[in-house]
Specification:
This protein has about 250 residues and is of the alpha/beta class. It contains ten helices and 15 strands. Strand 7 and strand 8 form a beta hairpin.
Length: about 250
C-alpha cells in the first residue's frame, strides 16, 4: 500500500468508527506504530482529524442541540449512577451551579431537600428544584433554547458573572485526554466556561460515551477541573491518565 493510500485508509477508518487506536491501525495497515503516529500527526496538521491519547478521533462538526426528549433516553442508567454519586458531594448550605445537561437534571432530582442555593440556566432543573422547599433557586434568564429548555446568550453570561459558588456541576459532549472537555454548541460552551470560572470546585459528569470525542467548542482544560465522575465502562488507561493530571476520578 502506497503512503497516500495508507493515509486515506486511516482517515476513512477513523471517520467511520469515530476513533481508532494506534495499535489497531498498525495491525490493519501492517506497518509499525511509529509509522502510524507520523501518519496521524500529518492528518492532524492538515486539520482532517484530531489526535487522542493512544490514537485519533474524528472531527466533530458543530451541530444544533439535541432535544431533551432524545437526551433523556440515551445512557440513562449511567447518568443515574453518575448523578447519584455527584449528590454525595453536595453539603447543606452549599452554593452550587448546574448546567442544562440531562445528567444535571438527574442530579437535581436526586438532591435532598436541604438548605442550598442553586444557580442554573436550565428551565427543567429549576422546575424540578421548585418542589424542594429548602432549596433556593436562581435562574439566569437569557435567550430560551427550545430544544434544550435552557437559557444562553449575553444576559445569561452576565448573570453568572455576579455570583461565586462552592461547586459547579457540568456535563459535556466530548472528553479529550489532552485538550479537556468540549461542547457541540458554542453558546452552551460559553455558559459552561462561565460556570467553571465562578466555582471553587469543578465536577465534570461524563459517561463513557463522551470519551475520545472532540466536539466543536472547548469548555475547559484539565487544569480548571478538579473532579470527574464517570461510569465503570470508561477505559482504565483513560482514568489513570487523568489521575496523573491530578484529576480526582470517581467511577460508579
Amino acid at each position: 500500500m502506497l503512503v497516500a493510500e495508507r493515509v486515506q485508509h486511516i482517515l476513512r477508518l477513523v471517520n467511520e468508527r469515530g476513533s481508532m487506536r494506534v495499535t489497531e491501525l498498525s495491525q490493519i495497515c501492517r506497518v509499525t506504530e511509529e509509522t502510524i503516529r507520523r501518519d496521524l500527526d500529518r492528518l492532524e496538521s492538515e486539520g482532517r482529524l484530531l489526535r487522542s491519547y493512544g490514537g485519533a478521533i474524528r472531527l466533530q462538526p458543530q451541530t444544533s442541540e439535541t432535544s431533551y426528549e432524545l437526551r433523556e433516553t440515551v445512557h440513562v442508567p449511567e447518568k443515574q449512577r453518575i448523578s447519584a454519586q455527584a449528590v454525595k458531594y453536595v453539603e447543606p448550605h452549599d452554593r452550587i451551579v448546574l448546567d442544562a445537561s440531562s445528567t444535571t437534571w438527574h442530579l437535581a432530582a436526586h438532591l435532598p431537600d436541604i438548605p442550598l442555593t442553586v444557580i442554573t440556566n436550565s428551565l427543567k432543573v429549576a422546575l424540578v428544584l421548585s418542589e424542594k422547599k429548602n432549596v433556593s433557586v436562581i435562574s439566569t434568564g437569557g435567550i430560551l433554547v427550545p430544544n434544550s429548555l435552557s437559557f444562553v446568550g449575553p444576559l445569561t453570561e452576565a448573570a453568572l458573572e455576579e455570583y461565586h459558588v462552592n461547586k459547579a456541576f457540568v456535563s459535556c459532549k466530548g472528553v479529550h485526554m489532552e485538550r479537556g472537555i468540549s461542547e457541540s454548541n458554542e453558546m452552551q460552551a460559553r455558559v459552561k466556561r462561565k460556570m467553571i470560572g465562578m466555582a471553587e470546585q469543578v465536577f465534570v459528569l461524563a459517561d463513557y460515551s463522551k470519551f475520545d470525542m472532540q466536539a466543536f467548542t472547548m469548555i475547559g482544560a484539565w487544569n480548571q477541573i478538579h473532579h470527574l465522575i464517570t461510569d465503570e465502562q470508561t477505559p482504565v488507561d483513560h482514568v489513570q491518565l487523568l489521575q496523573r493530571k491530578f484529576i480526582n476520578v470517581i467511577q460508579v
